[in-house]
User: Which sequence fits this backbone?
């Protein structure tokens, strides 16, 4: 059986987004290159890490990672990623508001789960088969999975910046020791992989 | 002229102490080995980083790093480090309450500065000559120097743990990009050195 992993890019102070996420600013009031410049400006140098992000049999994400629509689904929205999203598998979107599945090009289908993270996890597990499950974000969703003990591997991509506000990794996660599995320094980012230590 | 550096050990979520610092728990309500085990259990492996911490011509620290006494100096206290502290130079302690200098063995003298970080910085600069100045901690003091643009190099020692509460590095520091100077992974800690990018 596969593992449950999450890749998330954070500032040195742990923020994965700024404040005020909206349609014309998916990451809110920040210069997004401070966080994600490493993926665009130095893609070749980080090819292995980038490819691993979407190497899963199923994906789970929070509603804010899926889009800027809040409350009822009062207008069409099919994600930030255009007609062919990079997931190419079943993506389970956590929301309080039911929505029909949305089938995209390239094998991505967005399913909307209103029963919480455990229900999303079970559906993703059934879908993924022997492959891994990716918890795609945002930070709040990753923190929920960490707090619930459902995450096997957290791959932090730490960028040299201070953001000062926004959604923060580890917020609300119970104190615990982690195992640091690997560290790799690239020119614009430090890749650090942690695993929760089970049974504590 | 030397640089102004700070070494600080933090959890993966950025905390340098737990809550409720007190005399029998200098780092508050945490298992201190989660933070500082790397310095004691793997000292040989981290000899260069440990030696660099006290390789300065003068040192500045916050009052809580000096001791647990709060408010007026109502009882004798000469620091957490016994008769021969590891600094071997002039240590300027930031406080709102005046105190006579305390001369220890081995060349360490604690001076008490009531006029704020700039005054402490000027006295340390005069004392250090061509050598570096160390901002020894805690996190709140390091953050003040970072926010004031007075820190040249921040050496984070990141341990694989989630503490969830306490004094946090970067809190209150204005958003900015940093330069990541170096990364080294040791068995119990990840050493990451940042420099503020000037002129932004």
Assistant:
């Amino acid at each position: 059986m596969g593992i449950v992993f999450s890749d998330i890019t954070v500032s040195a102070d742990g923020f994965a987004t700024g404040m005020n996420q909206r349609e014309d600013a998916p990451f809110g009031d920040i210069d997004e290159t401070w966080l994600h410049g490493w993926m665009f400006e130095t893609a070749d140098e980080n090819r292995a890490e980038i490819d691993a992000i979407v190497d899963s049999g199923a994906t789970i994400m929070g509603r804010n990672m899926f889009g800027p629509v809040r409350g009822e689904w009062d207008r069409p929205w099919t994600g930030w990623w255009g007609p062919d999203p990079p997931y190419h598998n079943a993506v389970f979107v956590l929301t309080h508001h039911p929505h029909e599945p949305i089938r995209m090009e390239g094998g991505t289908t967005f399913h909307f789960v209103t029963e919480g993270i455990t229900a999303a996890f079970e559906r993703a597990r059934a879908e993924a088969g022997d492959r891994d499950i990716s918890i795609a974000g945002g930070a709040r969703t990753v923190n929920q999975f960490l707090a619930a003990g459902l995450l096997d591997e957290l791959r932090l991509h730490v960028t040299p910046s201070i953001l000062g506000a926004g959604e923060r990794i580890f917020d609300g996660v119970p104190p615990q020791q982690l195992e640091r599995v690997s560290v790799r320094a690239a020119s614009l980012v430090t890749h650090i992989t942690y695993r929760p230590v089970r049974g504590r």
Summary: Residues 117-128 of chain B form the longest helix (12 residues). DSSP finds five helices and ten strands in chain B. The CA atoms of residues 165 and 190 of chain B lie 21 Å apart. The helical segments of chain B are 32-41, 47-53, 63-66, 117-128, 139-147.
